[in-house]
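Action item from last meeting closed. Structure (605 res):
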């Protein structure tokens, strides 16, 4: 039977500036190197300096898809961490702290069924001549000892993290970590929820299928997966202005830019960023930009320009709570409708909704091809939860990926008679022959006004109708060839169920955790994940909801916004109204436990 709290949940908390996020990443990577599945989620306030930061990591033998609402291990670097998170501790959990600098009410904590592990972080660093900030290294290693993670994996991560600083720095950090690990090992802490033992990889014959050691996996965030997908897709130019929660997309591209021949331009604002990306694409270079809702709002006019000039454009939009600045460093799915209706007028716009890091990579590859082949803007919607969370997964691979394009070659252009090239030629599939600037015999006007086939302005009624219909035919073509309904949605769980959950994007992980637990306990639940908002898979969604639940079961909508925006789209496109809703809009992600409780309520369990 699957329990939502089977996995070990570890969290570190403290003041900003002390490497809280880095500690979470190091612990997650150490566990992944020990062949555990991991999922990590950082939280931090929207302050330039200071404030309370946390990083949570869930670890287990089986797949971990989301964060948890309960902690087994709390690594408290200050008293505030305990004050804020004591109520989130699971019974039998342990709080690791420095008893000489952090004053806690031990009786109250033990009365709550928790254990304490005092490690003299400051004294150990002082005795070794280490900087105060290195107490984090001591604490990280101490927590590894208490949960039963062998020191070799902490050492491995330290070696990777500090390799560029030289052997002396690496060795010193290992020495400091070893001191913390050894001290914690000597403590008699009655903490029972250790990391599950992994079978020795050499004892293959003695293991059954349930005990197989996981393959070595990478630990990566959604933003990094998008960046790597873009690089694999042939990205050569990116222009962007930093904005949470997608800044790390541009940082990762910049990090690898020299190796892969990519120009990463940090612009003065988002208007410049999108126009530069369009300009590069107009010249035949695969390009992209990325921003959050506020920055994307500034891009909306240029988005329409890309649509009218039929220029390929890829935009990553990371939603966060609005309106205006809202909650800049928290998570939300409130931009869905805004993104779909950005810019004036009507035009085809592909909008991808990845739900995990693998889909971030795979759908980025797909979106670049759709943008290039169909000469249209394409968007990828992510958010803080998906973009900044880290999880373990198999290394990405797309050996068969082939960039698609509808751009003619210079050789083809030479065969065109002078004056006969029609950039916006009316075609059956809506895709016109695209020549790049500088091609022979292919002079045309790229106008943002409505235009005729050769690009010259034409405001006649007949031309307007013909051009709108031409651009719209692209949707019909791509849905029948490169973006089938099976690509646009996915049903998880049994084909028929007493309850069908509908969701999209970053709610995928929490929903999967909840339905796995529910089904293991005798309930019947499945999950319809909608992967594209535009074009919307109307027929497929209607068919699945009718076949899986609506006649005999119930429907539940799960979203991180207050209006149930995807639910509104489902009703708009299918006529099906989802009455039951779990909507969270406090800036925090939906967690598996609340989905599970909603399932039990609806099924009267």
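Sequence:
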């Amino acid at each position: 039977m699957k329990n939502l709290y089977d996995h070990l949940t570890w969290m570190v908390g403290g003041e900003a500036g002390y490497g809280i996020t880095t500690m979470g990443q190091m612990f997650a990577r150490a566990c992944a190197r020990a062949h555990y599945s991991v999922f990590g989620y950082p939280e931090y306030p929207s302050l330039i300096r200071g404030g309370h930061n946390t990083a949570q990591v869930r670890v287990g033998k089986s797949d971990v898809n989301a964060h948890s609402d309960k902690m087994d291990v709390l690594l408290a670097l200050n008293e505030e961490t305990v004050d804020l998170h004591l109520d989130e501790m699971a019974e039998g959990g342990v709080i690791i702290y420095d008893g000489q600098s952090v004053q806690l009410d031990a009786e109250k904590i033990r009365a709550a069924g928790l254990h304490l592990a005092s490690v003299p972080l400051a004294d150990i660093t002082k005795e070794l001549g280490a900087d105060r900030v290195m107490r984090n290294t001591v604490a990280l290693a101490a927590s590894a000892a208490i949960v039963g993670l062998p020191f070799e994996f902490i050492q491995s991560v330290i070696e990777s993290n500090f390799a560029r600083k030289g052997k002396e720095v690496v060795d010193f950090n290992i020495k400091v970590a070893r001191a913390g690990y050894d001290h914690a090992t000597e403590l008699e802490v009655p903490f029972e929820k250790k990391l599950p033992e992994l079978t020795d990889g050499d004892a293959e014959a003695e293991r059954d299928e349930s005990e197989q050691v996981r393959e070595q996996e990478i630990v990566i965030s959604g933003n990094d997966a998008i960046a790597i997908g873009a690089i694999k897709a042939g990205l050569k130019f990116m222009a962007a202005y930093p904005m949470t929660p997608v800044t790390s997309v541009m940082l990762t591209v910049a990090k690898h830019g020299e190796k892969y021949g990519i120009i990463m331009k940090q612009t003065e604002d988002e208007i410049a960023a999108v126009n530069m990306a369009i300009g590069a694409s107009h010249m035949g270079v695969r390009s992209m930009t990325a921003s959050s809702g506020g920055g994307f709002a500034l891009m909306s006019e240029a988005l329409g320009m890309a649509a009218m000039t039929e220029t390929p454009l890829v935009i990553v939009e990371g939603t966060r709570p609005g309106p205006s600045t809202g909650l800049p460093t928290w998570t939300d799915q409130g931009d869905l409708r805004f993104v779909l209706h950005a810019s004036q007028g009507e035009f085809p716009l592909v909008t991808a909704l990845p739900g995990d890091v693998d889909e971030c990579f795979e759908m980025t590859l797909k979106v670049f091809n759709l943008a290039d082949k169909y000469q249209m803007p394409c968007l990828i919607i992510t958010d803080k939860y998906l973009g900044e969370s880290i999880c373990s997964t198999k290394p990405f691979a797309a050996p068969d990926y082939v960039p698609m394009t509808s751009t003619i070659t210079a050789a083809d252009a030479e065969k065109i008679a002078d004056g006969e090239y029609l950039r916006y030629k009316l075609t059956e599939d809506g895709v016109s022959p695209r020549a790049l600037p500088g091609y022979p015999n292919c002079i045309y006007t790229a106008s943002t006004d409505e235009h005729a086939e050769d690009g010259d302005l034409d405001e006649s009624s007949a031309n307007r109708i013909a051009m709108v219909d031409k651009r719209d035919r692209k949707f019909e073509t791509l849905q029948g060839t490169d973006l089938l309904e099976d690509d646009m949605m996915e049903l998880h769980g049994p084909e028929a169920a007493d309850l069908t959950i509908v969701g999209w994007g970053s709610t995928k992980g929490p929903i999967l955790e909840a339905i796995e637990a529910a089904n293991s306990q005798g309930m019947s639940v499945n999950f319809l994940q909608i992967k594209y908002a535009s074009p919307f898979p109307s027929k497929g969604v209607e068919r699945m909801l009718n076949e899986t639940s609506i006649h005999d079961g119930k429907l539940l909508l799960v979203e991180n916004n207050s209006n149930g925006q995807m639910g509104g789209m489902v009703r708009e496109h299918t006529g099906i109204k989802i009455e039951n809703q779990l909507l969270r809009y406090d800036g925090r992600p939906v967690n598996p436990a609340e989905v599970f409780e909603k399932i039990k309520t609806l099924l009267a369990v």
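Note appended to the action item: The chain has four domains: 8-211, 219-393, 410-469, 486-602.
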